[in-house]
Each structure stands twice: as structure tokens, then as C-alpha cells.
Amino acid sequence: MMKEPISHSLTQAIVATRKAFFIAGLTLAAWAPLIPLARDRMIADNGTMGLVLLAFGLGSLLMMPLSGILAARFGCRLIFTVATGLVLVTLPALVLADTPLSLATFLFIFGAGIGAMDVVVNIHAVRVEKLAERPIMSGFHALFSIGGIAGSSIVSLLLSYGLTPLLTVILLIAGVLLLLLRTASSLLREPESADTPLFVLPRGIVILLGFLCFIAYLMEGAMLDWSGILLTSANHLAAQHAGIGYILFACAMTAGRLSGDRLIKVFGRFQVFLFSSLIATLGYGCVIVAGHLMIMLAGFFMVGCGLSNLVPILFTAAGRQQVMPGALAVAAISSIGYSGILLGPALIGAVAHLYSLAGAFTLVTILSLFLPLYSNIIRQR
Asked: 215 and 142 in one domain?
């Protein structure tokens, strides 16, 4: 690894990484409150909107492997700055697009920028954690969660005060640019290695880490897309209260990540990963077995606590393995894991159609058992 310039102290790099994760979470979540407005603007039905939104996921998924290569060759600072700029430039187009084709095109570009940001901040976090020689990855991911809460809240608040979508995103862009200017200069500049290959096919432990990341993201995606429907169908809960399960899940995940670094420092990554995965599996069990609302809600909270530190630990393991360059490994497990978010809702929907939603959640619960079963891989890193 090439030596970092003296001007970029470790403390500055840690703070800058936290800001970068916050920016990534904020810009991603800012789009969520704008989706209903885009649908109304195009007068699109749900089927058409679903196909349009798929462009975002495709852009992210295709860009993730490439962003790992670019970060390894040109450094995280440059790629993160360019990717953030691409996202900010695309935001006004998203609120002005009035046809499905134009919105899908801009969503593909927006997704590519978000995908690059996601990979690069994790590559940077792995490098900073190595330099710090102490667990700090979970705290970085907590800032991503907090940024997501801030992004959706800010946009929703500005829209509620009567601002137009265009003016809302312009104000958001101005704020992000100011934060980016105070962040980019403190990010590590040097690439991982001057002789990093342009492409290495994922193999061995990287594939296994990617598979575990896929399961973790699949479990998270199920909470996002199906928890409300499960609550309303199993407990006859009013539709306006359907989001309470996901709120508990998200709050538990944020709290878990804020405390994750301290837990890892005390108990070690292996112990935290093992018990967290067991808690997540047990939480899913409560969700699908219990017929009582409060037990189901407790299950959602347990799933959030359990999943909170799994992905950060997997990213750390990817950065520490010796099978392939760390930047490319992080990009690889990001791509494999993110496909869980893309494919998960469709998989659960298909199983729910053939059997039941509880049956679909049972399948996810069974898949979750691979996390504790293969937790020993974390001990080896």
C-alpha cells in the first residue's frame, strides 16, 4: 500500500469517511419522497412505475464492479467526488422528467452514481479502519443510516412547506455541495496500489462473503418491502399503521450500528457476527410464528438489531482477505449483496403467490441460517 500524504491525518480521514457515508445515505434517501410525485407527473400505473424504478437498480448493479476498479486505479477521493457530482447533477432531471423513458434514463444514471458512491465509501472505510487498527466500520454505516433519515426528512419537510420539487432538490444540492467541499479534501487520495489489476474474477472466500452479504441484504429488503403487508394481513392492522414494523427495524439497525464498534472491540468480530446473525434469525422466527402483534413487533426490532453489524463486518473481512485486491473484493461483495435487494422482493412475491407471505418469510428465515453456519469465516480474517 502506498504511503498517504502527511497532510491527511488519520483523524481527518475518519471524520471525512463519516461525512462521506452521511452524504451517500442522504442523497439516496432524498429520492424516496419524490417517487410519488414522479408517478403522478407521468400519470403512470404501478406496473409502469415498477419497470421505471428497475432502471435505478440496474444502474447501481452495473456500476459497482467498475467503481471498484476505478477506485483501485485512481483513488477513492476522485471517484467519490465524481460520483457525488453525477448524482447531484441528475437530481433536477429526476424531478423534471415527464415520460417513463426519460425518467428511466436519468434513474439509470442516478443509480450508477449511487452505486459508485456506495462501493467507494466502503473501500475507503476498509482502508481507514486498517490504518486506525481498531473497529470503526459499524459507526461509518450508522452515519449512512442517519443520512438516509435526514435525506428523506429534509425533502419531505421542504415539500410540505409548499416548495416545488425543483427548488427542493436545488436547496438539497447546495447543502450537499458545501458538505462535499469540506469532505473531499480529507479523503485518502492515493490508489490502493499502482499495480492493481483492472479485473479479478471473484473466487474462494470472496464468493462466500458475497453470498452471506446477499442473504443479509435479502433479509433487509424483505423488511423494507413486505413487513407492512405482513403486519396488515396477519393482524388486520390498519394500512396507515403498517409502517410501524419497518420503523422499529430501522431504529434498531441504526442503534445497533452506533454501538457496533464498541461491541466488536469488547467481544471481537466473530462473536458479534455469530450472535447478531442468531438474533436476526430468531427475530424472523418471531415474525412468522407469532400470532400476537407485540411479539411480531419485537421480532422486527430483533431483526434490526441482528442485521445492523453483519454487512459492516463482511466488508471488513473482504478488505482483509488476501485472495484478491481489497478494493475489487469490496466491489464484488457489494455487487453480489446488492442483487439480494433487487431480486429479493420479486423472489418473496413469487413464493407468497404460490404459497403464502408467511411461507416466503419462512424461506428467508431458512436462508438466514447460513449466516451463523458460516460465521467461522469471520474468525479467519
From this structure: no
Rounded to the nearest integer, the mean pLDDT of the chain is: 87
- Cell digits for 115? 452505486
Residue that has been written with the C-alpha cell 477513492 in this structure: 76
Lowest mean pLDDT among 102-116, 227-241, 301-315: 227-241
* Any domain includes 189: no
pLDDT in tens, 238-262: 665 667 888 888 889 999 999 999 9
Residue 339's CATH number: 1.20.1250.20
**pLDDT tens, 75-86?**
899 999 999 999
Domain count, the chain: 2
Specify the pTM: 0.85
Residue 69, domain member (yes or no): yes
Q: So what's the pLDDT on residue 110?
A: 95
Measured CA to CA, the distance from residue 99 to residue 21 in angstroms comes to: 32
Which residue from 320, 67, 61 is spatially nearest to 205, judged by alpha carbons? 320
For 231, the domain range is 205-379
Residue 73 lies in a domain: yes
Which residues contact residue 51 at a Cβ distance below 8 angstroms, ignoring those fewer than 6 apart?
100, 104
Nearest to 336 by CA among 256, 216, 171: 216
Give the C-alpha separation, 123 to 126, whole Å.
5
49 Cβ partners below 8 Å, 6+ apart? 35, 38, 39, 42
Contacts 24+ apart (CB under 8 A), 230-237: 230/287, 230/296, 230/357, 230/358, 230/361, 231/293, 231/296, 233/357, 234/291, 234/296, 234/358, 235/293, 235/296, 237/293
| Range of lowest pLDDT (43-57, 94-108, 127-141) | 43-57
Distance CA 11, CA 186 (A): 9
At 191, is the pLDDT very low, low, confident or very high (cuts 50, 70, 90)? low
Whether 242 contacts 232, CB under 8 Å? yes
Please identify which residue in the block is written with the cell numbers 410464528. 289
Q: Kind and range of the H or E element at 219? A: helix 205-235
Q: Is the pLDDT of residue 290 over 70?
A: no
- In this structure, the answer to whether residues 295 and 172 fall within a common structural domain is no
Looking at the fold, whether 236 and 352 belong to one and the same domain comes out as: yes
